[in-house]
Amino acid sequence: MKKYQEFSVFSQELNREIKIFMMLPKSYNEGDKSYPVLYMNDGINLFDDNLATYGKSWGIIEAFENNPDLTELIIVGIDNEGEYRSNDLVPFTFKFSDSEVLYGGNTDNYIAFITKTLKPIIDTKYRTLINPLNTGIMGSSFGGVCATYAALKYTEYFSKFGCVSNAYYVIQNQLENFAKSNNLKGVNKFYMDVGTKETSNDIDNQKYIDSNKKMYNILKDKIDHKNIKFVIAKDAIHNEIDWEKRFPDIINFLFN
Q1: What is the pTM of this model?
Q2: Could you give the CA distance from residue 170 to residue 185 in angstroms, rounded to a whole number?
Q3: What residue ranges define each of the domains in the chain, with the CATH number in brackets?
């Protein structure tokens, strides 16, 4: 029996059906307790190896089963389908190095879907702690870029941000300038990390590390030092296997 739910929600903001993958806490049906909520990008890769893009999920169900002291959460995964992913998760337009096509720039509509359409459904149907203090958003790669952008602009909805293996470099200057112009006073917890082997190319690895360091150096002066954490994960690769390893520590930092 599946330990997560799947359903679809039509988004007027994005003009398409969005698949949702949701996991309730183990104790959900044992009482009337309400729970924090973590919205996660790339929802298809969170719970089920059979669905995951590269055949391996984040193993989130197993993480909670194997770490009984983890704060219980409702986790809501939002699917980011191939052709829409770069546009929805990257807030400013950019070009891949081998293409003249512009991508990105649709993140405000994507977050509007989460906050205006999806969150009200979740808060109405399930026992959630609806305030920003108990609501987070998290993702990896472009999903981490999206979560960082949410910290800069959408703290009326979220206060906890998990930003993993962030591909900041594609919009480095725009994102740095936007970060410098924001005070981040609504951020309760901000986690970010980068692996030292994100790619098989040493030059690209250093690009990841340097771009994350630059963002951290801006953000650390705007967030109380107890509430921001930056991890450089030795030998960590850009994949779900290594994100799974870091997941429990991320949850402990964000929600404890």
Answers
A1: 0.97
A2: 26
A3: 5-255 (3.40.50.1820)
